[in-house]
Each structure stands twice: as structure tokens, then as C-alpha cells.
Amino acid sequence: MRAKENGTDGLLGDRLKSWRKSIPLKGFQLAQKIGITGPALSELERNRTLPSAGTLAKLARNSNLNILWLLTGEGDMYREESPDDEDDSDYPELKDLYGSLKRIIKMRNDKKTEHLKGYLLGADPGK
Asked: Domains along the chain?
């Protein structure tokens, strides 16, 4: 869907609300999904505040929203998925591994973190 086709080429909050209604989610559902409060989402959608970089990252990670469209009104509302992208639900063990990675990095042990990064990058067949 093109921005100008649905009349949402104005303000970021208007675009965000238009996208949310197109998926469709209620405000509190989207807020919960991306880890912000309902009132914070309402402030964004009413053009009273702008999203933080963290909120934009959460939207990008947890939805099909094209962040460039959200910010500029240019391009498609929905991000195109790469054919190489796979549904993470096919790999439930990734959730456990992700939790372990977060705990290791939060320990702030630079030696362990660098060792882990080196192993993962060395083991990644895509690099």
C-alpha cells in the first residue's frame, strides 16, 4: 500500500495509526507487543511525541512496518520480507539461546562476550 493512496503522507503519528488499523490491532495490543505503554502509543499516534530509536527498533523487530515509510511517508507501508527470512517459530530453540545470549552479555564480562561473538561469527556459514 502506497502512502499517498491512503492519505497518510502527512504526520508520523497518522501513519503509525493508519498502519496499526490496517493489521488490525487495538492500541493496547500494539503497545504490549512492542513493550511500551498504551498512553505512550496514544501520544505517538496523536502526533504529540516522536518515537525513540528504541521504539522504532521494537516496531521493526516485531512487525512488518516499513520504518522508512513511517518516518518519511515514502515507499510501501509494509516491509517486504526477504525470501531468505524464515519464521523464527520454526526454531523454538532460538528463543532459549537468545535468552542465554542476553544473560551473558548483561554480565558485562568483555572477555566472555568477545569469545562468544568470535565463535558465532566464525560458525556463521553466511559470513
From this structure: 4-72 (1.10.260.40), 88-123 (no CATH)
Backbone angles phi, psi at 76, to 5 degrees: -85, 150
CB 35 within 8 A of CB 42: no
Question: Is this prediction's pTM over 0.85?
Answer: no
Cell numbers for 118, please give them. Answer: 568470535
Angle between helices 27-34 and 38-45 (to 10 degrees): 110
Query: pLDDT by residue for the chain (127 residues), tens digit each?
Result: 443 444 445 799 999 999 999 998 899 999 999 999 999 999 999 999 999 999 999 999 989 999 999 999 999 999 876 444 555 666 777 777 777 777 877 888 888 888 877 887 777 666 5
Contact at 8 Å (CB) between 2 and 76?
Answer: yes
